[in-house]
Recover the amino acids of this structure.
């Protein structure tokens, strides 16, 4: 158990700032995901938490104590890597027992602990096998077991499931979440896949180019993205973005998009900023509906260019003027390519971003 | 504490450097020393020549020793022929090993030529020190009329360094992803074309390193040239060992002079290929 | 003419049979996806089509020409490898030009230049022409690899998991782009992947492959809604289809499916004869997560199950439930709020269930018409 505080941490390599001014507080026993594209600084942050790298500026505190210079072995951390880091010359049992053997615990204690962990992970029958005989999926469980055995206060996982096939990955996500709840450990999970972050984490820290973009619950980052980057990054279907101008009328904001035939949209702002010139509005594909192109209530009209039939839903791609938009529809809805369609949107779900800062206004 | 460790490291590295560089330094200075400075029998060790001279160099190219070495009564000697012999045999022997060895290495690396055993068998060739097989080879060479010929030396040099080429080049070829040559084949190359145009450019650095290594081996060979040649065909190392005079025995200065000259071809070669020794060409071809 | 016919192709590596008597007919201009887990034989299939592997048995025909004995360059096919295999020592320009410089028919320099520049335009990589692969991003390298294929204007394009090394977001963006590109080119494209979303999203038809055997070939709609066996059913669709074991009994002219938490019955009619043949056996009921009804949406006689985990994905929520000791997943709209350890009613949309007999083969798919009803 440990509360982690990352305080204004910066990490510079030569002239390059891999992590800039990161400020994050992770409460004891929470499952936090570090999410972002390649090069955003998430792995660097992870390495600083583990002790493999030292921050250039700022402090990292575990339970109130500064640990910047503390060696990884002394930090009481469990690691699970992308490449398992399994010892191939040992059996599964020995791999899991490794941490305890190094700490010179008595044999009976080791035996008991390993069996307990194996039971928790569902691999008791594999314990005596050599690691070369195990499947990729079981190996991953052994890796997790090995990291758990010393009962660390914190788990750091770096894209551990990226080598597994899709079906097993979805199964392991549920298992990991269950495990975290049972052990009540602080778990920090690094990934570039927003589905993984959303499905497992209690809170998600989204990073881009070394900076923290937003730190919130899955619901918050999805429905209240703090800026345009987060809005575009989170979500299994990409958010639609269109340029827009703003007009204040009373309490409302009227958005007018420079798209041929577009009707203005009225939104109720949660906060509005003056001083910015250019704006972009965003709306998720599932918050738009296809309607008859002749409908008076249609916000935009367009021509269908592509249909993705994903199974439980379809995604219709269309062009309106020179913009491309996507709409999520039921799997039975299949307009023809080239068909003219109309779009209606849910104005309560519209986001507005300032082009200059990227920040969300609505 | 850290300072002690650093000081110890510096001391150790300096010691190693001294051990390795001392013979070079001694040879170079010796090459320019007049005869009376050659040995310490005069009582003094000359760390640097007191009276530097080019006499030694003149001596090995046919001049009669003058000055301080005039007491040496010996016939004029000329190292030119031996240097030419060395150049020819070492260069062509190395080329032979490089060409045959590189193709063999490619075959083993790409097509697993010879199954599991060929690579190992080739390497085994080198596990025999040449001295163990030199006599049988002598008989064989004599039978083939290759004894005391340049061709004979070229062939044996090629054979003896061939395993090194295979061993080194195979590891370089192994690092090139197989898909690159496959892409070239799909793009229309023949097997050879794929090798020549897509793979070989990527191992330029390795090839250069291997070439240098093999050349140095052949250039500095003494034993083989001594046994398998030595009458009509004399290579420079053998010639060097024969520079004696009745009066003083070994002529250190002259030998050192020839030694200095013999360092030059490998040195030149390294400088020439230096830019090819840079790695980093394979990055970017494959995704991680 | 870029129709591909694979007739009885078998490929072996020593003792391992990578492809076992594969028969496929890929239509001219089709976007054809081969979907399967690692080791299924997808890459081997691709390599056999391009000519880097020779089958032990069977023939490969491209455009009605038997190409089985032809080398790759004679087949007029191009391939993008999983690791791209760009020539690292050559610039992007030279990478694109390379295929044009190899052919037996010499292509003139200005012609090479024109085609390279044209291809670069299409893929939007013109500003990168002078760079080397090491200085490109993942997405840019991807396009260069595709460009190298495009330049030769082959009859058939083969892509081996080209998006697998890209970030999730980039993958999403490239899907639509690849689809548009293929449509413009109008040529057959065979796309290999283990990611079922990619296959569903882009393919005109999907071939599900496992251990060297073709499991099913069909439209995305077919493999999704009418899978022929449990392998296809659980491979296509994420989260995978839930499978619940039930025992089948026949009583008084009706069929009964029974498990501890589930009890379904249907009058025995002609449609269900295939099912009835397995009376007394253990069948599997297949229901997709989006067809699981929770809480108020579930019929009143539904069993009550404990929530194990809740995965909020933004556009929908996945709820993991303990159904009779087995974990099943339900997909619900995002506005629900279940907590772990809550106990809620769980029902299945009976007009969308499947039945599989013990070997995995499908014996029944409701296809919109419910034959079974919940027995109380």
């Amino acid at each position: 158990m440990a509360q982690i505080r990352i305080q204004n941490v910066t990490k510079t390599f030569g002239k390059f700032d891999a992590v800039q001014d990161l400020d994050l507080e992770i409460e004891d026993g929470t499952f936090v995901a570090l999410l972002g594209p390649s090069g955003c600084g998430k792995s660097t942050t992870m390495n600083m938490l583990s002790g493999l790298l030292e921050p250039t500026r700022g402090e990292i505190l575990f339970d109130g104590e500064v640990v910047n210079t503390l060696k990884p072995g002394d930090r009481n951390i469990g690691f699970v890597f992308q490449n398992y880091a399994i010892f191939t010359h040992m059996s599964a049992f020995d791999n899991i027992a490794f941490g305890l053997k190094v700490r010179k615990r008595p044999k009976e204690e080791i035996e008991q602990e390993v069996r307990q962990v194996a039971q928790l992970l569902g691999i008791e029958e594999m314990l005596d096998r050599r690691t070369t005989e195990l499947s990729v999926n079981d190996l991953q469980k052994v890796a997790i077991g090995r990291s758990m055995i010393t009962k660390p206060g914190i788990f750091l996982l770096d894209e551990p499931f990226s080598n597994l096939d899709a079906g097993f990955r979805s199964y392991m996500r549920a298992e990991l979440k269950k495990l975290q709840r049972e052990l009540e450990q602080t778990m920090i999970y690094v990934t570039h896949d927003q589905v993984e972050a959303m499905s497992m984490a209690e809170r998600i820290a989204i990073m881009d180019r070394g900076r923290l973009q937003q730190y919130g619950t899955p619901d918050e980052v999805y429905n209240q993205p703090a800026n345009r980057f987060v809005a575009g990054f989170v979500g299994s279907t990409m958010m639609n973005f269109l340029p827009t101008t703003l007009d204040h009328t009373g309490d409302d904001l009227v958005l007018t998009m420079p798209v041929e035939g577009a009707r203005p949209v009225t939104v109720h702002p949660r906060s509005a900023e003056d001083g910015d010139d250019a704006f972009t509005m965003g709306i998720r594909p599932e918050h738009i509906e296809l309607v008859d192109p002749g409908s008076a209530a249609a916000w935009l009209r367009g021509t269908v260019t592509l249909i993705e039939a994903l199974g439980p839903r379809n995604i219709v791609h269309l062009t309106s003027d020179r913009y491309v938009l996507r709409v999520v529809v039921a799997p039975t809805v299949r307009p023809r390519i080239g068909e003219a369609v109309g779009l209606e949107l849910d104005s309560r779900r519209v986001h507005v971003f300032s082009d200059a800062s990227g920040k969300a206004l609505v | 504490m850290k300072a002690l460790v650093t000081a110890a490291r510096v001391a150790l590295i300096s010691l190693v450097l001294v051990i390795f560089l001392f013979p070079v330094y001694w040879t170079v200075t010796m090459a320019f020393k007049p005869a009376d400075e050659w040995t310490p029998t005069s009582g003094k060790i000359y760390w640097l020549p007191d009276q530097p001279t080019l006499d030694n160099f003149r001596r090995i190219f046919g001049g009669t020793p003058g000055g301080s070495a005039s007491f040496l009564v010996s016939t004029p000697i000329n190292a030119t022929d031996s240097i030419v012999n060395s150049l020819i045999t070492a260069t062509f022997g190395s080329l032979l090993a490089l060409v045959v060895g590189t193709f063999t290495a490619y075959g083993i690396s790409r097509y697993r030529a010879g199954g599991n055993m060929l690579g190992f068998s080739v390497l085994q060739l080198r596990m025999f020190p040449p001295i163990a097989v030199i006599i049988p080879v002598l008989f064989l060479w004599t039978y083939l009329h290759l004894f005391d010929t340049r061709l004979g030396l070229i062939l044996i040099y090629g054979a003896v360094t061939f395993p090194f080429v295979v061993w080194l080049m195979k590891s370089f070829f192994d690092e090139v992803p197989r898909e690159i040559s496959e892409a070239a084949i799909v793009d229309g190359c023949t097997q050879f074309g794929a090798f020549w145009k897509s793979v070989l450019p990527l191992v330029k650095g390795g090839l250069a390193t291997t070439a240098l290594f093999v050349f140095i081996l052949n250039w500095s060979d003494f034993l083989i040239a001594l046994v398998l040649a030595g009458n009509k065909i004399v290579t420079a190392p053998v010639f060097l060992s024969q520079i004696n005079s009745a009066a003083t025995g070994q002529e250190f200065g002259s030998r050192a002079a020839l030694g200095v000259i013999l360092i030059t071809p490998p040195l030149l070669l390294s400088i020439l290929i230096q830019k090819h020794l840079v790695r980093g060409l394979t990055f970017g071809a494959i995704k991680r | 003419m870029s129709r591909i016919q694979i007739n009885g192709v078998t490929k072996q590596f020593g003792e391992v049979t990578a492809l076992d008597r594969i028969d496929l007919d890929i239509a001219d201009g089709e976007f054809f996806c081969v979907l399967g887990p690692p080791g299924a034989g997808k890459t081997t299939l691709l390599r056999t089509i391009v000519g880097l592997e020779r089958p032990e048995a069977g023939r490969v025909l491209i455009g009605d020409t038997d190409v089985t004995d032809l080398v790759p360059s004679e087949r007029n096919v191009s391939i993008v490898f999983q690791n791209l295999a760009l020539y690292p020592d050559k610039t992007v320009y030279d990478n694109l030009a390379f295929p044009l410089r190899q052919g037996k028919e010499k292509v003139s320099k200005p012609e090479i230049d024109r085609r390279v520049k044209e291809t670069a335009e299409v893929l939007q990589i013109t500003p990168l022409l002078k760079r080397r692969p090491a200085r490109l991003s993942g997405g840019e390298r991807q396009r260069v690899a595709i460009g190298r294929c495009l330049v030769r204007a082959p009859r058939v394009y083969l892509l081996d998991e080209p998006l697998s090394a890209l970030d999730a977001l980039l993958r999403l963006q490239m899907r639509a782009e690849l689809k548009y590109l293929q449509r413009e080119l109008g040529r057959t494209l065979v796309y290999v992947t283990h990611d079922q979303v990619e296959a569903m999203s882009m393919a005109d038809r999907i071939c599900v492959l496992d251990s060297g055997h073709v499991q099913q070939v069909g439209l995305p709609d077919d493999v999704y809604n009418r899978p022929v066996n449990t392998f296809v059913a659980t491979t296509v669709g994420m989260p995978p289809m839930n499978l619940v074991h039930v025992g089948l009994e026949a009583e008084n002219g009706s069929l009964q499916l029974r498990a501890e938490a589930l009890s379904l019955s249907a009058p025995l009619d002609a449609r269900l004869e295939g099912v009835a043949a397995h009376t007394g056996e253990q069948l599997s009921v297949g229901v997709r997560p989006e067809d699981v009804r929770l809480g108020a949406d579930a019929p009143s006689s539904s069993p009550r199950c404990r929530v194990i985990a809740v995965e909020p994905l933004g556009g929908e929520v996945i709820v993991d439930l303990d159904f009779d000791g087995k974990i099943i997943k339900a997909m619900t709209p995002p506005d629900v709020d279940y907590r772990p350890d809550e106990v809620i009613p769980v029902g299945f949309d009976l007009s969308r269930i499947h039945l599989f007999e013990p070997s995995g083969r499908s014996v029944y798919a409701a296809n919109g018409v419910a034959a079974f009803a919940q027995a109380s």
